[in-house]
Amino acid sequence: ALGKGGGWWRSLFSKGENGFVFLPADQSTLTTDTAGSTPVAADGNEIARFRDVSGKNNHAVQATAANRPIWKVASTGSYSQSDGVNDGLVSSFLPTASLTLAVAFNCSAAGALIGGGNGGTGNRCRISIDAGGKLSGGWGAQTETNIVVPAGVDLRNADHVGIFVADATSVDLWVDGVKLYSQPPSGTGFGGSGGLTLHAANNGGTLGQFSNSRIYAGLGLSRRVTSAEVARITERFQGAFSLNMTDFISDFGGDFA
């Protein structure tokens, strides 16, 4: 289990910010029931709940057994694996006017990695992979065809860290620590009733844009992070798929209570 204490990750939430940190690479944060009482025990177990280790208690759950991703065990980088059909874990964290989403992932096809809000009214946000395998996003009136890394490489079937940062000033996309997109937003990316969801986008309570994806780690934060924080998040999240579980947990040790 993750160690006790403060640590750098706590500083992201030190001014009252809301959000979540999910670490599927750490077996102790996953359970097969929504109450959080029965830990995953073996490769292929269904995941009913991600425990939010940020201290904000925005846990992500899926009550329907058929719609749960599974836990996959690997020598480096254990992860949550979705089927791209109906899997998604829904958190209680709603999109905010200033927002950061970060995810360590491996995705084989187009779909949302983290998304929520109310797409029917344009109050939505998400970080996604588009049909060409490029990192993309949605914010307010903008969709994956508007917010996409220009001339970006195909990220499918490889491990990466994607970070989406947005507010009323700009929407930015970072891939593996490099900013590759920055433009003014159109509309607002917050509102509605769809809590941010892993492996899919939540449109006011209805999940869609399912991705066939591995997720090693995910973060949501109710503010823009700085460039220095992007670099640190990227470094730590890369450890989720490049380190064995013991070393990964040690790397995070002391960061969370």
Round the mean pLDDT to the nearest integer and report it: 89
Radius of gyration, in Å, reads 16 Å
Shape: globular
Q: In what range is the share of β-strand residues?
A: 25-35%
Order of helices and strands: HEEEEEEEEEEEEEEEEEEEHH
Q: How many angstroms does the end-to-end distance come to? A: 10 Å
Quaternary structure of the protein:
single chain
The counted number of beta strands is: 19
Structural class: mainly beta
State the share of residues found in helices, binned by percent: 10-25%
Largest β-sheet summary: 8 strands, antiparallel
* Separate helix tally: 3
Low-pLDDT windows of residues:
1-6
Quickly list its features.
35% strand; mainly beta; 257 residues; four-stranded antiparallel sheet; 3 helices; 19 strands
Report on this model:
There is one protein chain. This protein has 257 residues and is mainly beta. Strands 1, 5, 6, 8, 13, 14, 15 and 19 form an eight-stranded antiparallel β-sheet that branches. The chain has helices at 8-11, 227-242, 245-252; strands at residues 19-22, 30-31, 49-50, 60-61, 70-72, 79-81, 89-90, 99-107, 111-118, 123-129, 135-139, 142-148, 160-166, 171-175, 178-183, 197-198, 201-203, 206-208, 213-221. Helices cover 11% and strands 35% of the residues. The longest helix has 16 residues, at 227-242.
